[in-house]
């Protein structure tokens, strides 16, 4: 019963089903990736904001609490950098004491800084230029690769105010300690309203990106494993319920049309997939039936004529007239 062309319907079904599963998996993984990336982004942004709020709190504490209190305890001409400069304290706490740089990156930088350690690098220059070109810009954010690691970055411009001029304006006004420590050139000569530089926070996202990749791989492989299982089940059922019965039907045709005259039907059974071949064979079978019926009807009609003629002949014979010969028609005209 088996024929190389059999199983074709199964192949078509298999292919269609596989395409659906693949497409479904693709859409599923694509949206999952989108969603996880969005979560990652929200998380990185929230963390960067958190670092910023810590920096602001610290700066505010130094400016409003520590500095005035220290000022009350030291002579007027003295200046205690470690307790009175917000930039110094924030740099110490958030840059130098930030032992685990893999957690976050903080920089307070300038194009021409007082402390050479706060010199803006290429990326920071680019951001500062951005702030310089657009005075209304409050933040710059995005993803950048820093030292080969992808970071979510958040930057805010720092503008000089009148208070700052004490240490950033004319060196003549500046505390002696400051001049001794940094010299009278760097960090001076600014005016209120000038762009001082920027505060910059970078959150490394490589680990989160890695986690997203792992999650995608895990979900992807479990989805396709489950899909393969369902696929197999469907194929088994399909085989049992559809393909097997189609083959039985084909078998019925083969068994019942074995004479050479039925070749046209049997030949059709070898065309296309099971359903196609059955349809073709059925078409041929129907044509076969119609032909047979026409023949039968014709034969029946002729039979009446034949019977009538024969009766006439017989009656003529009975009355002594020689009967006509050669006028009796055969059954199929
Ligand atoms: C009491 C003196 C003092 C005052 C007031 C002061 N600064 Fe500074 N600032 C410094 C010192 C000292 C440094 C260098 C700190 C270090 O070593 O990192 C500095 C550094 C900075 C830096 C980092 C880049 C660089 O030049 O090293 C920025 C930006 C900055 N200050 C902005 C400001 C702004 C804005 C204000 C006013 C809101 C201000 N500062 C007020 C003393 C001062």
Automatic annotation (TrEMBL):
Keywords for this entry? Answer: Membrane, Transmembrane, Transmembrane helix
Q: What is the lineage of its organism?
A: Bacteria, Pseudomonadati, Thermodesulfobacteriota, Desulfovibrionia, Desulfovibrionales
Membrane is among the record's keywords? yes
Ranges for domain Tll0287-like come to 41-204
The species this protein belongs to is Nitratidesulfovibrio liaohensis
According to the UniProt record, where is the region Disordered? Answer: 312-333
Segments spanning the bilayer are 215-238
- UniProt-listed InterPro entries: Tll0287-like_dom
Pfam family of the protein (one): Tll0287-like
UniProt name for this protein: DUF3365 domain-containing protein
């Amino acid at each position: 019963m088996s024929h190389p062309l059999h199983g074709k319907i199964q192949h078509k079904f298999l292919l269609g089903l596989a395409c659906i599963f693949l497409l479904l998996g693709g859409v599923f993984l694509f949206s999952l990736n989108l969603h996880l990336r969005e979560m990652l982004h929200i998380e990185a942004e929230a963390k960067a904001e958190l670092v910023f709020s810590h920096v602001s709190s610290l700066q505010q504490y130094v400016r409003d609490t520590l500095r005035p209190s220290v000022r009350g305890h030291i002579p007027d001409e003295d200046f205690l950098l470690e307790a009175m400069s917000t930039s110094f304290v924030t740099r110490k706490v958030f840059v130098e004491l930030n032992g685990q740089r893999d957690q976050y990156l903080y920089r307070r930088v300038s194009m021409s800084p007082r402390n050479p350690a706060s010199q803006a690098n290429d990326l920071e220059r680019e951001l500062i230029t951005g702030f310089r070109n657009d005075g209304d810009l409050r933040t710059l954010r995005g993803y950048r690769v820093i030292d080969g690691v992808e970071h979510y970055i958040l930057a805010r411009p720092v503008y000089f105010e009148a208070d700052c001029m004490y240490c950033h304006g004319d060196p003549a006004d500046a505390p002696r300690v400051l001049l001794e420590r940094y010299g009278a050139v760097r960090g001076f000569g600014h005016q209120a309203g000038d762009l001082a530089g920027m505060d910059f926070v970078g959150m490394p996202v490589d680990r989160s990106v890695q986690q997203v990749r792992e999650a995608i791989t895990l979900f992807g492989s479990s989805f396709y494993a489950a899909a393969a299982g369902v696929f197999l089940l469907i194929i088994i059922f399909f085989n049992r319920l559809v393909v097997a019965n189609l083959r039985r039907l084909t078998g019925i045709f083969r068994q019942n049309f074995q004479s050479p005259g039925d070749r046209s039907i049997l030949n059709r059974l070898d065309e296309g997939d099971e359903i196609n071949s059955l349809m073709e064979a059925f078409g041929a079978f129907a044509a076969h039936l119609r032909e047979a019926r026409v023949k039968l009807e014709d034969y029946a009609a002729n039979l009446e004529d034949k019977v009538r003629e024969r009766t006439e002949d017989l009656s003529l014979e009975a009355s002594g007239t020689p009967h006509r010969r050669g006028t009796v028609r055969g059954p199929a005209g």
